[in-house]
Amino acid sequence: MDHIELRALGHWFEGRSQRGERKTIHLFDNLNLTVRAGRSHAILGPSGAGKSSLLAMIAALERPKAGEVAIQLDGKVADAISLRRRSGFVFQQFHLLPELDALGNVALPLRLRGDGEAREKARHWLDRVGLSARAAHRPNQLSGGEQQRLAIARAFVAEPAFVFADEPTGNLDQHTAAYIGELLFGCVQEQGSALVLVTHSNTLSRMADCRHQLSGGRLELLA
């Protein structure tokens, strides 16, 4: 089964105290977690606890200072590049390309891989997130909720094994956030992907199979 295993992960960086003195700031130490295919994980915690850094390390976008991130895909040990190819990403700031229309943004990950059916698959996912009628619109012509729906379509278009989401509802009003949460988890279940989600929202986190609290350098499983 596809999985990502964090083994004794530790991370810190050099900063300065209020008096300007250099100091080492520890985000977490000896952290362990296994993310398996088909399971969803929500990571909660106060600002500055290191949630986004942890997410980046699970996704193999950053390397920890200590410990190991072990990846298995299709029954074999895999590297960071292979994981990124099998992953989708959803961010708070959307990260859409302003020069491309909605269809072009969704199709882009497949076009970069040389997929000859990129536009057809992109149309399917635009329809899945309810944006078929907005296919020719650029991101600045879409509302915040529509842009996040577009980002979700882009994340799932390549049939990812893992999806990583960093505060996907953080910039949205309560009603739109609830809709986006339902859509995101619906796509995860439909696709059979694993989901790792960083959020401040208790409502969104409760939709996950597992909830974790990152605080004081420790990651604890919540009931």
UniProtKB/TrEMBL annotation:
Superkingdom in the source lineage: Bacteria
Protein name per UniProt: Putative ABC transport system ATP-binding protein
Gene3D superfamilies named in the record: P-loop containing nucleotide triphosphate hydrolases
SMART domains: AAA
Entry similarity comment: Belongs to the ABC transporter superfamily.
Keywords recorded for this protein, A-Z: ATP-binding, Nucleotide-binding, Transport
Any one GO CC term of the record: plasma membrane
Record-annotated ABC transporter domain positions: 6-223
SUPFAM superfamilies in the cross-refs: P-loop containing nucleoside triphosphate hydrolases (SSF52540)
Entry GO MF terms: ATP binding; ATP hydrolysis activity; transmembrane transporter activity
